[in-house]
Write a structure and sequence with these properties.
Blueprint (H helix, E strand, L loop, with lengths): L7 H4 L1 H15 L5 H15 L2 H13 L4 H6 L11 H14 L7 H9 L4 H25 L4
């Protein structure tokens, strides 16, 4: 595998800076950091980005996320480890990450609105958008296959 399969960090530095500016905004958006970790980790699992999975597990552990919740995230729908708010956010994240599955976005948004303000829903949506972006970049850099 080529060490420089893509050179986006050099050739598109302004775009990468814009991505990091969005991440800085999300740091101030009032979302629970553990929720952000869960979303980023779950989306990275779906996308098959081992680099990001490792990074988000490490970051979640540093912020004292429970090991059992990290272990069970891949089966979050089948365990009782997550709050209703977290479950709504994870369902939204999965729906926005997988395309063409026929997820009922209006119903999923309604579930989010039971737990979050519209500003927080918008921030959650941006977390999903950004981790999908970072996943694609890291997959292009690191994965042997996709």
């Amino acid at each position: 595998m080529s060490a420089n399969r893509i050179t986006i960090y050099e050739t598109a530095a302004k775009a990468v800076k814009a991505f990091t500016d969005v991440e800085a905004f999300l740091d101030t958006a009032g979302l629970d950091p553990l929720l952000r970790h869960l979303i980023k980790l779950r989306v990275s699992q779906i996308n098959g980005c081992a680099f990001c999975v490792n990074m988000h597990i490490r970051e979640a552990r540093e912020d004292n996320e429970a090991e059992a919740r990290l272990d069970h995230l891949v089966v979050w729908r089948h365990v009782d480890d997550y709050t209703p708010a977290e479950r709504a956010a994870l369902a939204w994240a999965e729906a926005l990450t997988t395309s063409g599955t026929g997820e009922p976005l209006t119903a999923l948004h309604r579930d989010l609105a039971d737990h979050f303000s519209q500003e927080h829903i918008d921030a959650i949506t941006l977390v999903v958008v950004m981790i999908n972006t970072w996943n694609r970049i890291q997959i292009a850099l690191h994965n042997k296959k996709f």
